[in-house]
Write a structure and sequence with these properties.
39% of the residues lie in helices and 18% in strands. With 515 residues, it is of the alpha/beta class.
Length: 515
């Protein structure tokens, strides 16, 4: 372990015991030394958000900004945290969900997170350099550049649905930009949050990177801290409250929210089976609890039966068995499951047709495991909650459309979505949708994939979010781009000083010709 000392950290979950590496660099005066001579975390009464923020804020204002080597070291520690404790982390996620296999967490959380970390480490040196800019002729021979600096202290409030990717991802990006980070993970995944707190505390000093645990009251206190930037992932309703709290401190925010992401199956789509498979995968990944999951399908009128058949076959291919299947995640809590059941009950009561499209095994037995069976809903009306609220579950309304303009009009009549999906072969029809709609991101002839492309910014627009991250976009989100102009000793600017007269008029006439 690179001669690093180790200590044993007990983690109470089916008698799981983890060995956690404690890096030498992860110490500071904020920690005290225990009887064993090892650095120990502060006492619990010093771990309130305000105290932790004060320590980070003081260091960010008085310590030398971290060097490129220090930033690389912090990213390496995040990688080491993941690599050395993958099993423990996936077990904690499984325990929080009830059913969510390690392979699902690997592809849905850790794969995207590791790709993000790899991209940050590869490009960090280039992104951190001062950026030369061209100087206009009238300011020569002076020169200008943009100096990229850390903002200071960044707060990250993470969600429960992808409790590793959507917490450590923005946190690592902020660390790469040279910031100090406070992370508030969700109380709905308490085991994962507790384990993250323990592991981060043993790989980082509290004034570098720390985790704050607690419920809604702690989250409210956290959001009210005067961060240099606050990053939130969650629902639009909570996002409004976070933005309101941040505004009192003039704290800039990034809000990664959600909404009703449409999926258009164009009349030119000839591969119904392939489209249905990709739609089912995007919809049912993580039990439908994905912010960019297809929320509803806009389908050419008259193709409902064909789509139902293709979607049912796709579900059977992806999940030959539902109950107890670790690949098919449980709904996170009974309260969330009850909400989804209420959406279905209201739709049925209002005359909608609900089609159970799951495999025949264990029909009606999902209550005990919270594995809600996938369904298609036809005939839903705009007044139903199913078409008003983000679904966040394995329920997919199907809305027939007469043509592409009608689909575009339907999308534009609603708040702007986080994602949009389009299936077809007609490039003109595709481009009409891309021009005629506004969404956070788009994947053509697939679902979800745009979030995995590190060169593409990820974020929402309007009700679905504010700001974007991933790749260099994310690095710049947590960076202050300071304008620097270095004047030459031969500068002619004094020719424009008062008193104004004929000389001034001649100079301005010359400058106007250059503009």
């Amino acid at each position: 372990m690179d001669k690093r000392r180790q200590r044993i950290l007990p983690y109470i979950d089916d008698s799981l015991v983890l060995r956690v590496a404690l890096p030498r660099r992860a110490t500071s005066s904020f920690w005290h030394t225990g009887a064993s001579g090892m650095p120990c975390p502060p006492e619990p009464d010093t771990l309130n958000p305000q105290t932790l923020f004060d320590a980070q804020h003081q260091r960010s204002r008085h310590a030398t900004p971290p060097s490129l080597a220090e930033r690389h070291d912090r990213l390496a520690r995040v990688v080491r945290l993941l690599d050395e404790h993958t099993t423990a982390l996936t077990n904690a996620v499984q325990a929080d969900f009830g059913i969510r296999g390690g392979r699902l967490t690997e592809i849905a959380d850790l794969f995207v997170l590791r790709a993000m970390l790899g991209d940050l480490r590869r490009h960090l040196a280039r992104w951190s350099r001062p950026q030369r800019v061209r100087t206009p002729l009238y300011l020569m021979p002076g020169r200008g550049h943009i100096q990229r600096q850390p903002l200071g202290v960044v707060g990250v409030i993470g969600p429960w649905n992808y409790p590793l990717q959507l917490t450590l991802g923005p946190a690592a990006t902020a660390l790469a930009a040279g910031n100090r980070v406070m992370l508030k993970p969700s109380e709905i995944t308490p085991r994962t949050s507790a384990l993250l707190a323990e592991l981060v505390a043993r790989h980082f000093a509290p004034d570098e990177f720390t985790v704050v645990q607690g419920g809604a009251d702690v989250a409210a206190e956290f959001a009210a801290l005067p961060f240099d930037h606050l990053f939130f992932t969650g629902s639009t309703a909570v996002g409004r409250k976070v933005a309101e709290a941040a505004a009192r401190n003039l704290t800039p925010t990034t809000l990664e929210l959600g909404g009703k992401s449409p999926c258009i199956v164009d009349a030119s789509c000839t591969d119904f089976e392939g489209a249905a498979l990709k739609i089912a995968h995007g919809k049912l990944l993580n039990g439908g609890q994905t912010c960019i999951a297809p929320d509803y399908v806009l389908l050419p009128r008259g193709r409902e039966a064909a789509f139902t058949q293709a979607y049912r076959a796709a579900v059977a291919r992806l999940f030959p068995q539902l109950q107890g299947n670790p690949d098919y995640a449980a709904i996170i809590t009974e309260r969330h499951q009850a909400r989804l059941q209420d959406l279905l009950d209201e739709a049925r009561a209002g005359g909608a047709q609900v089609e159970d499209v799951g495999p025949p095994d264990g029909e009606g037995e999902g209550a005990a495991t919270r594995q809600l069976r996938p369904s298609l809903v036809f005939g839903a009306t705009p007044a139903m909650r199913l078409l008003q609220e983000e679904i966040f579950g394995p329920i997919l309304p199907v809305l027939p459309c007469d043509d592409a303009p009608q689909a575009i009009a339907h999308i534009n009549a609603a708040p702007r979505p986080l994602a949009l999906y389009w299936f077809g072969t007609d490039s003109a029809a595709r481009d009409a949708v891309l021009r005629g709609t506004v969404s956070g991101g788009v994947t053509v002839n697939d679902t979800l994939i745009h979030i995995t492309h590190e060169r593409l910014p990820f974020g929402g627009v309007g009700d679905s979010g504010l700001g974007a991250y991933h790749g260099e976009t994310g690095f710049l989100r947590f960076t202050h781009q300071k304008a620097v102009f270095v004047q030459s000793r031969w500068a002619a600017g004094q020719l424009l000083y008062p008193p104004y007269g004929a000389r001034f008029d001649r100079m301005m006439g010359w400058i106007r010709k250059l503009l």
